[in-house]
What does this fold into?
Amino acid sequence: MDNAASPAAASGYADPPRRMGFFTDTSVCIGCKACEVACKEWNGVPDDGFNLLGMSYDNTGGLSANSWRAVAFIEQPAPPKAPDGGAGDLRWLMMSNVCKHCTHAACLDVCPTGALFRTEFSTVVVQEDICNGCGYCIPACPYGVIDQREGDGRAWKCTMCYDRIGDGLTPACAKACPTQSIQYGPLDELRGRAEQRQAKLHEAGETSARLYGNDPGDGVGGDGAFFLLLDEPEVYGLPPDPVVTTRDLPKMWRTAGLAALTMAAAVVAAFVGRSR
Amino acid sequence: MTDFRSYYGRPVVRPAVWRKDIAGYLFTGGLAAGSALLAAGADLTGRPGLRRVGRLTALGALGASTYFLVNDLGRPARFHHMLRVAKPTSPMSVGTWILAAFGPAAGLAAVSEIAPRLPGGPARTAATAAGRAAGLAAAAVAPALATYTGVLLADTATPSWHEAYPELPFVFAGSALAAGAGMALVAAPLAETGPARRVAVAGAALELYGSHRVENELGLLSEPYKQGRPGRLLRAGRALTAAGVVGALLGRRSKVMSVLSGAALLAASVATRFGIFEGGIASAADPRYTVVPQRERLDRITRTPSTPVTAAPERAPAQD
Ligand code: SF4
Ligand code: SF4
It folds into this structure.
């Protein structure tokens, strides 16, 4: 298996299993939040406060240290059904968001303790006994996923149920999803399935259906957890064109090196320049 | 295009959870680096007063830096977990090792300042030699200490930090030089401050040039550095830097002028660091700064402007 297809192999696993992933098909999501509940139950994730946010049926508010799946609700004016149909109805878009388990994961790159690591399934997981809460992964993630838990200090996020998938089980969210909006499986299979689904929706006239995070050529090398969306990513709170920040890191180090040399030269000049 | 769509105006990327400690560390780390450089120069050119101020400041600022860095951790007792790995892809890991190299050297150089109080002979000679070696070692690491923090901030998805990656190391290098020189003007004997004044000019030039670019050359992403508190801080930094440099140049013979201009340079460095720090946080907190540049980039590539809300039919018209 080539390294691009297997981040696990690229990280040094000798003979890793297939890359596992999530395909979240938002076109069949009914917004039941079974995924949120199942995730909390299985992973022992504390509550995120019991708030009314005034964001449609979303009172979770997005992914956080205490919400590893979060269902977004968008209310939109639906388009007219026929040319003379007048103003359309309201439509709901719903999407269960999750950590993308990026091929090039900024959180993992910048973690200074090695707490974040690449598993044999090519997912990205925090080791809670290593993380010292430095917080660097948090602004590094281009999707705003990983977060510090208050009162705990460490960083937390979706593990793709590392403890389940190692035993051949399905992650809790995918298991609980009643509509198969969340599908778990080998990533290459999921990608194929997603393309078929998109084609089918286009045939049915739902031309706004688009895949998000499925392209290994994108700024993060493709996501291990990708989506079928019915509107632009930013409508769901997703970045339209995310790029792993460490892509520019070699240029950054070169710039810093130049600045350091400039600095040293300025001091040398200040001392040898004149005698006073 | 400044029109953009978002999910209830919520941020897309997460603002850093770092507290003011980290902004404070940007300053103290720079001060330690600038002071160590001045101390080494002073040592080699026979300026004991300037050397002493530089070495003691470097140690004090290093102590403050260590406190800030440990205190900001979610789990301070696990500070040493940073030492498990050395990762070039993590500027924080690189910074940890830079500090680990700088710290003992700067500490030894400062301790060697007791040499003159030792009884003459071998003990004093040995302390002086060790101090010189340690001071030079600290100075060798100092430029890395002063500039890696620019990479630390830039290597994030925080829009206005990342976009400023070509500038931040220069701003921070300048700010570190100006701060070190400022402290020397405050505390070193007037007769030995000539090099510190020249360093102040060079540092101020770098800092002013870099922050001017940050505030004006990043397009939409310059905005967070011009508005609100970050804007006020950066403007204050600029004014204080200018005042400090003028004072440093005109006040060669006046202790009072030197102290005042040194204080202005130190305050300028604090203001600039906090301004850059808070400007980045502000850019992450507003989805505009994440969405608009990415959308523009996409539209440039695909040449298909974003579709309006109503372009998505709910179901196939043919079946209705
Ligand atoms: S989505 Fe964020 S937290 Fe998840 S793997 Fe990618 S960078 Fe890390
Ligand atoms: S907060 Fe924890 S997981 Fe995140 S970068 Fe720091 S040590 Fe790594």
Summary: Strands of chain A lie at 20-25, 69-77, 90-98, 116-118, 124-126, 147-148, 155-156, 182-186, 210-212, 225-229. Residues 3-244 of chain A form a domain with the Alpha-Beta Plaits fold (CATH 3.30.70.20). The longest strand of chain A covers residues 69-77.
